[in-house]
Amino acid sequence: MRVPSANCLAAPGRCRRGFTLLEMLVIMVAMGILIALLAVTMLGILRVEGGSRTALDRISIYARLADQFRSDVAQAEAAPERWQTQAAGPACVILRMAGDEHVVYRWETNQLLRMQFTGSAKPIRTVLLAPGRGDVAFHRSGPGDRLLTLSCVETRSQRDKKPATHTLLEISAALGGVHR
Length: 180
What we know:
Elements: H1 6-10, H2 21-75, E1 82-83, E2 86-87, E3 92-96, E4 101-108, E5 111-118, E6 124-129, E7 135-141, E8 147-157, E9 163-174
Antiparallel strand pairs: 1-2, 3-4, 4-5, 5-6, 7-8, 8-9
């Protein structure tokens, strides 16, 4: 048991052995406000990080698509208008590679497919652009239509409910690369 000092007995108003209930309440309210501010800040940071991650994912997807398209077009010998059941147009481009190999880029069911045909083997299908990433169109230009362009356009609804289109990506490559 603790014995009060002589000063506490002489002047009981000055002797403090702890905090009052009001002081504890003020401290608890202040701590609650600080914790709430910290929580709001953390939520904001997580939202920004999520948006940054989404943007980085989108950039890496488009970079891989651009690298693959440029590589295929540079290695191609020609871009015929028709091959087997495939027909070239705004939604399809056909590339004839060396030998009996063909690569077909096709925009169908709201996704970009790359199909690689080698001889009579079953084609290798790769999804290059998943649904919801926009619309894709192919264009030909340049001398002899040797410049192929893949355009990816995204449509977003604005606040006034009118759809706005934004060209996200245009990839151009010359048939046969720079050697022709």
